[in-house]
C-alpha cells in the first residue's frame, strides 16, 4: 500500500524514517524533518542493513544549512527507542520490513518511493544533482505531508 497523506489530522510525536542502509535517504529525511516538524517531535532514522556514511549527503544538506552531524548509519536493532507514531519508508525493502515488524502494533506505516541517488553516473556535478533531487523531494514530502499542522499554526515551512 502506498499512502499519499498522513491518516491522522495532527503531526506525529515520533517519526522513524527507514531506507535500505541508513546512509542517504533516511538520514537526509531525519535532518529535514528535525527542522520542519514541531519542537519536541522525536525523529530518528534506521536502515534494513548496515551501510556506510555517504559524503554527498553532507554536501547537499550543507547547501541548505543543515547537517547530520556525527550520524553513523544504523540498523533497526541499534535504535535506542523502538516505539514510533509513524514509520516512513523510503525504499521497498524498508517498507516490507516495517510492515512485517508492525503487524501487531498500532503504528502508521507510509511508503514514500524515493530514488536511490547512488545509481547516478556522470560528472561530480551530475551526481550531486541526483542527491539534491532526493533532498528536495524529501523536503517537499515532509512539508506537505507531515508538517501541515505546524505550518497552520504559524511555523515557517520546511527548507
UniProtKB/TrEMBL annotation:
Pfam families: LMWPc (PF01451). InterPro entries: Ptyr_pPase, Ptyr_pPase_sf. It comes from the Bacteria. Transmembrane segments: none annotated. Gene3D superfamilies: 3.40.50.2300. GO terms for biological process: response to arsenic-containing substance. SUPFAM superfamilies: Phosphotyrosine protein phosphatases I. Residues 13-148 form the Phosphotyrosine protein phosphatase I domain. Keywords: Arsenical resistance. This is Protein-tyrosine-phosphatase. It comes from Rhizobium meliloti. The lineage of its organism: Bacteria, Pseudomonadati, Pseudomonadota, Alphaproteobacteria, Hyphomicrobiales.
Amino acid at each position: 500500500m502506498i499512502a499519499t497523506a498522513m491518516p491522522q489530522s495532527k503531526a506525529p510525536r515520533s517519526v522513524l524514517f527507514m531506507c535500505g542502509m541508513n546512509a542517504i535517504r533516511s538520514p537526509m529525511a531525519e535532518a529535514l524533518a528535525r527542522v520542519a516538524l514541531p519542537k519536541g517531535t522525536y525523529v530518528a532514522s534506521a536502515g534494513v542493513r548496515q551501510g556506510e556514511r555517504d559524503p554527498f549527503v553532507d554536501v547537499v544538506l550543507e547547501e541548505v544549512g543543515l547537517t547530520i552531524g556525527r550520524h553513523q548509519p544504523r540498523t533497526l536493532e541499534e535504535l535506542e527507542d523502538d516505539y514510533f507514531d509513524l514509520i516512513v519508508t523510503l525504499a521497498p525493502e524498508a517498507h516490507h520490513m516495517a510492515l512485517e515488524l508492525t503487524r501487531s502494533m498500532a503504528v502508521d506505516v507510509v511508503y514514500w518511493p524515493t530514488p536511490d541517488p547512488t545509481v547516478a553516473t556522470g560528472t561530480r556535478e551530475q551526481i550531486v544533482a541526483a542527491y539534491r533531487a532526493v533532498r528536495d523531494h524529501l523536503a517537499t514530502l515532509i512539508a506537505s505531508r507531515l508538517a501541515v499542522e505546524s505550518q497552520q499554526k504559524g511555523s515557517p515551512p520546511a527548507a
